[in-house]
């Protein structure tokens, strides 16, 4: 057996999930991408540039989207997203998750991305009002892909748009879809600029709770030596022990640091869509 492929028990999967998710949220919830403006309860996440806004949406899509690597743990869905993994963690550790607020934070994220809304926009090229039923998750995925640049990008975007148009009872030709696409991109960007602050808040709430779990696990057996960390029962590999030890021992953001990057979203940024 390859020493880097020693099986994915539930404990090993938990370690990977905690490490990947914590590292991801460290990289996305911070003042390098945005600053929080205003005072609670009417705050806004102000992204520094168009590029940082696009980066945030791309990374958010990565958090919500199912992965390409199949999980080898039989109890889990085969292509687990980081968010779905967190949901699994809350069920595996209900008391820890409830006490830190992680269960509620994950549930709020899942509820928001699964919400289906009517995306209404005017296509000036066709002089036509268009209404497409989409989930928030689909909207983020669509916009994230518009900001990437690769040879098959246009084809993939048009396939998605065509599928949604058919669902909305539109029968556009390929040439017409090309005319609809710019208007759809503009609408997706506008909506996500509106939703951006609330997405930041939802992710930051989950980050805060997850960080508390990591810190509390460290405090049960505080040590600066990764080999002395108390590992989850059933950890079967030195590789996974190293990953977990590094997470538990290495520097964790303070509560103050995370809260400073957590907006309390204004009601004006929650009610439009």
Short description:
This protein has 273 residues and is mainly α. Helices cover 57% and strands 10% of the residues.
General description of the model:
The chain has 273 residues and is mainly alpha-helical. It has two domains: 10-50 and 66-110 and 198-269, no CATH class; 116-190, no CATH class. 57% of the residues lie in helices and 10% in strands. The strands form two sheets. The protein has a two-stranded antiparallel ribbon. Strand 3 and strand 4 (128-135) form a beta hairpin. Helix 7 (153-167) crosses helix 8.
Rg estimate, integer Å: 21 Å
Rounded mean pLDDT is 90
**Quaternary class:** single chain
Question: Which class do the helix and strand fractions yield?
Answer: mainly alpha
- What is the overall number of helices? 10
Distance between the termini: 52 Å
What can be said about the biggest beta sheet? Answer: 2 strands, antiparallel
**Helix content bin:** 55-70%
List low-pLDDT spans: 1-5
Beta-strand level of the residues, as a percent range? 5-15%
What's the number of domains? 2
Features:
273 residues; mainly alpha; two-stranded antiparallel ribbon; elongated; disordered N terminus
Protein topology:
Layout: H1 10-28, E1 34-39, E2 42-47, H2 50-64, H3 82-92, H4 94-100, H5 102-114, E3 116-123, E4 128-135, H6 136-146, H7 153-167, H8 174-220, H9 238-249, H10 255-260
Antiparallel strand pairs: 1-2, 3-4
């Amino acid at each position: 057996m390859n020493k880097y492929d020693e099986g994915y028990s539930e404990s090993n999967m938990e370690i990977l999930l905690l490490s990947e998710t914590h590292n991801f949220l460290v990289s996305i919830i911070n003042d390098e991408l945005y600053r929080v403006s205003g005072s609670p309860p009417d705050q806004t996440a102000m992204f520094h540039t168009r590029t940082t806004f696009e980066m945030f949406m791309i990374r958010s899509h990565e958090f919500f989207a199912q992965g390409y690597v199949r999980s080898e743990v039989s109890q889990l869905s085969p292509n687990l997203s980081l968010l779905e993994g967190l949901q699994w963690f809350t069920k595996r550790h209900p008391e820890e998750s409830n006490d830190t607020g992680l269960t509620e934070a994950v549930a709020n994220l899942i509820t928001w991305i699964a919400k289906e809304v009517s995306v209404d926009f005017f296509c000036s090229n066709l002089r036509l009002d268009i209404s497409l039923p989409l989930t928030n998750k689909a909207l983020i995925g669509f916009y994230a892909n518009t900001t990437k640049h690769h040879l098959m990008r246009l084809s993939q975007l048009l396939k998605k748009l065509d599928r949604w148009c058919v669902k909305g009872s539109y029968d556009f030709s390929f040439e017409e879809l090309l005319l609809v696409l710019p208007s759809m991109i503009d609408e997706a960007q506008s909506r996500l600029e509106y939703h951006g602050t609330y997405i930041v808040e939802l992710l930051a709430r989950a980050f805060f709770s997850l960080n508390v779990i990591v810190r509390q696990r460290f405090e049960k057996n505080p040590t600066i030596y990764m080999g002395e960390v108390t590992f989850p029962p059933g950890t079967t590999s030195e590789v996974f022990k190293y990953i977990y030890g590094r997470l538990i021992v290495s520097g964790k953001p303070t509560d103050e640091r995370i809260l400073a990057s957590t907006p309390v979203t204004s009601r004006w940024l929650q009610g439009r869509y």
